[in-house]
Design a protein that fits this description.
heterodimer; A: mainly alpha; globular; B: alpha/beta; ten-stranded mixed beta sheet; six-stranded parallel beta sheet; 19 helices
Chain lengths: ~170, ~525
């Protein structure tokens, strides 16, 4: 067991590499976690305005989500809790793979609903200038890095799961 | 010793964890605590900011005053008659629960394409426990559609050719009047004489004398009269009134209201029905008290363009804004009125101006009410109420900005509690209460109107609420929100606008005599042709 771990440690990442990966995971997790938390704490928050502001190829899909009150309610709950749990898991390093995949799907949807393409403008003001690439897509790939360079087995709660599994 | 060493190892293997494992496994947990604590601090700060702001401007957040639908007892059925089934008549009948087949088809088609709002809104309306026993329209095609629309579930309404017969019919308790303006008062007066309750479209009257006659008969007969300013039901106006009572704006010296339209339809250039002819239209009945002219389809379908039947921008559109502001500020009839305007864009033979400006002076209230309209530009100019301390934009939403030079907020502006770039109050109809806006995103969404496309997932038609208010008042023996007194003020204010425009001078109101101070009967006859 000790062998396995040290093998994993030394073979996979240097200490610097590992540190950067863990920091990346925690900062992305913090951001997503806080997004979820602030939505849950605001009783008047709804994704309605955001969805109705959708543009681009998939806008119709997002309008449909918004137009049905019960679907909208479900979207709101799933979105806020999804963000909170994904962010939490990334921060504490639990269920890294599933959290990363879910995070990529969710953030991918944000990107698709508000793509920064030519000719599309949005009600919410951007704090920077974006063309095709915006911070959503960058965060999407930041999580992708996490998915393909797993690190919560080394630093994170997944370590305990990994240890328990390898004990058998 | 060896034994002890082995045991130790076994123990470690038993728990499966070294200290290193525990430290590495839990290393990032403190960040969660940090994020939660940070969120708590941030929220506390924002709340403090909002509460400072709200207490600073003297507003208590009271969600309980948010609008709700009336739940009056509707046990007693009301038997209605509709006179006039044009564009507005059809809308009113639909708002009371009966939609035409054509409308249903169009909406169902739209619903199939994912745009089901109007249909859904209609289907979610409450059953008002009414039936239509009579319909009347002097255009044969429309009267047939009206008849089919209200004759449902085995009930058959009666088609009247003469509106007077409908008004006096024994099986009709109340009438909705949605005819051209010159017919409003004659029909409403007759209905009141017959003891029938009246919902009449705006403006209340077409001529000056009618206004007094109708006020008189409605007061004597005790009927419930509702004037068709459905904005009386718009929740935000009530909120605006509440804010102004709390003196959020300070002394108000000016109100600006506007009509911004830019389409043939908006300029009353309505389509002419293909089946319209002297055979399908009772032209003599249409004319009524108007000057006798030969059959004219433009006059019939686009009557709002002509003084003989319509009331121009003053009676047609200014009245909406006047009544909205009268509802908020309780203005009453202005002391002085000046007006000007002309036919500057739609040179299609119309008589009424398509550009119009009017000033209502209220010296006793230290304020001026401005109205300006163009039918050839629809740049969004909101209605604004301007006080010394703050400015309010009022429509479906309310937004209040503090004034840089405000006396009342001077300290709060100085200490940074009030950010002049952000509204100090923002209210969206149907939301849970008043809120001070602290996020730029929210402000953007609010200003773009995205927040009130759906209200709590349910959109309610204000015209429906206006009809409901009327019906509930009939049952309870009360006067509805836009009662005859407000109607009188509305009609007089509108007539003063028309007098000022046509006579080209400032018109004065003599409050003591309850009549114009500087207009002769001859001039009234000349301007209103009767």
């Amino acid at each position: 067991m000790k062998n396995n771990l040290s093998q994993f440690n030394t073979l996979a990442y240097s200490n610097k590499q590992l540190s950067v990966l863990v920091i990346l995971r925690v900062v992305v997790g913090w951001h997503i976690f806080y997004e979820g938390l602030s939505k849950l704490l605001n009783p008047n928050w709804s994704s309605l305005a955001y969805l109705m502001d959708s543009k681009g190829f998939f806008a119709g899909f997002f309008y449909n989500l918004a137009s049905n009150p019960s679907v909208l309610k479900a979207v709101d709950v799933l979105n806020a809790w999804g963000l909170l749990l994904i962010g939490l898991c990334l921060m504490i390093g639990l269920f890294e793979k599933i959290a990363s995949l879910s995070g990529m799907i969710l953030i991918g949807l944000y990107y698709l609903s508000h793509p920064p393409f030519i000719g599309l403008s949005y009600a919410a003001p951007g704090e920077g200038s974006y063309f095709i690439i915006n911070k959503n897509i960058i965060e999407f790939f930041a999580i992708a890095v996490n998915l393909y360079f797993p690190n919560s087995r080394i630093v994170g709660l997944d370590r305990f799961i990994y240890l328990a599994k390898n004990k058998k | 010793m060896e034994d002890t060493g082995k045991n130790k190892q076994t123990e470690e293997q038993g728990s499966g964890l070294s200290r290193r494992d525990v430290v590495k496994g839990l290393a990032t947990i403190p960040f969660v605590g940090g994020a939660i604590y940070g969120a708590y601090r941030k929220r506390k700060y924002e709340r403090q900011l909002k509460s400072n702001l709200l207490s600073g401007i003297g507003i208590d957040i009271d969600p309980s005053t948010a609008g709700s639908e009336s739940s009056a007892d509707r046990g007693e059925q009301i038997r209605l008659g509709i006179i006039g089934f044009g564009i507005r008549g059809e809308q009113l009948v639909r708002a009371s629960g009966f939609a035409t087949e054509a409308w249903m088809e169009v909406q169902q088609e739209r619903a199939r394409n994912g745009n089901d709002i109007a249909l859904k809104t209609f289907l979610e309306q409450h059953d008002l426990n009414i039936i239509y026993n009579g319909v009347c329209d002097i255009f044969e095609i429309e009267s047939e559609i009206a008849l089919n629309t209200v004759s449902v579930n085995g009930h058959k309404a009666k088609k009247y050719h003469d509106w007077k017969e409908l008004v006096y019919a024994d099986d009709i308790d109340a009438v909705i009047i949605a005819t051209p303006d010159h017919w409003h008062a004659p029909m409403a007066i007759e209905a009141a004489k017959a003891g029938k309750h009246v919902y009449v479209e705006k403006p209340l009257t077409h001529k000056v004398q009618e206004t007094y006659d109708l006020l008189d008969i409605v007061k004597k007969s005790g009927i419930s009269l509702q004037l068709g300013h459905q904005f009386r039901q718009t929740e935000s106006y009530g909120k605006a009134s509440e804010l102004i009572r709390k003196d959020v704006l300070g002394p108000i010296t000016m109100v600006q209201t506007n009509t911004n339209r830019n389409s043939p339809n908006g300029a009353w250039q309505y389509p002419i029905h293909e089946k319209a002819s002297p055979q399908t239209i009772d032209w003599e009945m249409f004319l009524g008290n108007a000057p006798k002219v030969p059959f004219n389809m433009d006059h019939f379908f686009r009557w709002r363009k002509y003084w003989a039947y319509g009331t121009g921008l003053s009676g047609d559109l200014l009245t909406h804004d006047y009544d909205a502001i009268n509802q908020i500020l309780n203005l009453g009839i202005p002391k002085y009125v000046t007006a000007s305007g002309g036919i500057y864009f739609f040179k299609d033979g119309r008589e009424v101006p398509d550009v119009f400006n009017v000033l209502f002076e209220y010296p006793e209230k230290d304020m001026t009410f401005q109205y300006s309209a163009s039918l050839a530009n629809e740049y969004n100019r909101p209605n604004i109420i301007m006080g010394h301390d703050a400015t309010m934009e009022v429509g479906n939403t309310i937004t209040v900005y503090a004034d840089r030079r405000s006396t009342r907020y001077a300290d709060r502006i100085k200490d940074g509690t009030i950010d002049l770039e952000l509204p100090i109050v923002s209210y969206t109809s149907g939301s849970e209460g008043l809120d001070a806006i602290t996020s730029a995103t929210e402000r953007y969404f609010a200003s773009k109107g995205l927040l009130y496309t759906f209200i709590n997932g349910k959109r309610i038609d204000v015209t429906h609420l206006h009809i409901v208010d009327w019906l509930d008042c009939i049952r309870a023996g009360k006067q509805p929100k836009c009662n005859i007194d407000y109607g009188f003020e509305e009609a007089i204010a509108a007539h003063m606008g028309t007098l000022a425009l046509k006579l080209g001078r400032r018109i004065e109101w003599d409050h003591a005599n309850n009549f114009f101070g500087n207009v002769t009967q001859d001039e009234i006859m000349e301007v209103f042709r009767g």
